[in-house]
Amino acid sequence: MRLRHGWLLALLAISGIALGVYHNHRTHQNQPNLLTALVRSVVIPVENGVRTLTDGVGGWVSTLTRAQQVVKSHDELAQENARLRLELERLQTLQKENEQLQQLLQVRPALSGKWVGARVIAHYLQPGQQMIRIDRGVRDGVLAGAPVVASNGLVGVVAQADSHHALVRLLIAPRMAVSAKVLNAQKVSSGICEGRGESEILLNFVPPEAPISVGDKVITAGIGSKYPPNLPIGTVERIWLDRQYSVKKAVVRPAVDMEDLQVVLVMRGAGR
User: Fold this and answer.
1) Cα–Cα dist 200/179, whole Å
2) What angle do CA 201, 239, 256 make, to 5 degrees?
3) What DSSP designation does 163 have?
4) Residue 64 has what pLDDT?
5) Distance separating alpha carbons of residues 84 and 95, to the nearest angstrom
6) Under CATH, which architecture does the 177-255 domain have?
7) What is the pLDDT of residues 13-57, one digit of tens each?
8) At 132, phi and psi to the nearest 5?
9) How far apart are CA 260 and CA 96, in angstroms?
10) Domain segments of the chain: what residues?
């Protein structure tokens, strides 16, 4: 077996030398080299095909790389856009809170009694519920039954309080009732403002002969000790006569935008 391998190697070596001599001889004689032509006819197309395939693969890889970079850039831009949007919302909330706080500071001197500022941390405005949660509680002197106001009017009353937080029932909520006065140019009339679980308030039990007009302002009457007098409640929008009970009624648009509340004032030490 080894002898056969040796002869085979020797034969290949001799063949290689012979081909080399043949190639050199034909080249020096300026004669056509059939062997070279044969090799070129086979090798060059293969080489060109390999080069084309390599270029194609390289272009595909380059395109894939660029696509991956584009996707990565898009994801980064989307994340940055989301972060900036959240930051903008936070700044807008802080701006609203600052504006309402400045307005509260202007209102505070006109209120008698002790009041504490509170931040609204949650809104529950579902029909029939209408409450907000504030970040003040019993440890701050906030008790159930305490009135709550905003810079532009009455908000509602504290329904329940724990040591750190309190739930405030809004003026528009069911079972809310506040004695009120209607400021008409001809005469000031009395009535009761009732929450109906909607976005509006019902003004009820106004004497049938009382002059009321659309656009009249409605304020707290201050009857009893729960709500201070002269706090804005809202504006009359629609009026009708209830003949069954011989009273005038009206729909009142609240002075306070309950959905936009950021900060409020709560009377300290007051409650039922």
Assistant:
1) 16
2) 30
3) S
4) 72
5) 16
6) Beta Barrel (2.40)
7) 565 565 555 555 555 566 555 555 555 565 456 556 546 655 565
8) -130, 155
9) 8
10) 48-171+256-272, 177-255
| Tokens linked to 265 | 């004032």
This prediction has a pTM of: 0.64
Both tokens of residue 1?
Answer: 């077996």
- Say if residues 216 and 195 touch (Cβ distance below 8 Å): no
* pLDDT per residue as tens digits for the range 216-227: 999 999 887 689
Which of these, 162, 172, 105, 115, lies nearest to 135 by C-alpha position? 162
DSSP states of 46-113? HHHHHHHHHHHHHHHHHHHHHHHHHHHHHHHHHHHHHHHHHHHHHHHHHHHHHHHHHHHHHHGGGS-S
Polymer length in residues for the chain: 272
Query: What tokens were used for 110?
Result: 């006109």
Distance CA 255, CA 97 (A): 18
Cα end-to-end span (Å), the chain: 115
CB atoms within 10 A of CB 89: 10
Q: For residue 223, what are its two tokens?
A: 């009857």
* CATH no. of 48-171+256-272: 2.40.10.340
Q: 80: how many CB neighbours lie within 10 A of its CB?
A: 10
Q: Tokens 């062997």 label which residue? A: 35
Given this chain, do its domains 48-171+256-272 and 177-255 carry the same CATH topology?
Answer: yes
Burial of residue 77, with CB atoms counted within 10 A of its CB: 0-12 exposed, 13-18 middle, 19 or more buried: exposed
Measured CA to CA, the distance from residue 53 to residue 35 in angstroms comes to 27
- Let me know: does 205 contact 214? Beta carbons within 8 Å: no
Q: Extract the runs of DSSP E, i.e. beta strands, from the chain.
A: 115-124, 131-134, 147-150, 153-161, 166-170, 177-183, 188-195, 201-206, 217-220, 232-242, 247-254, 263-267
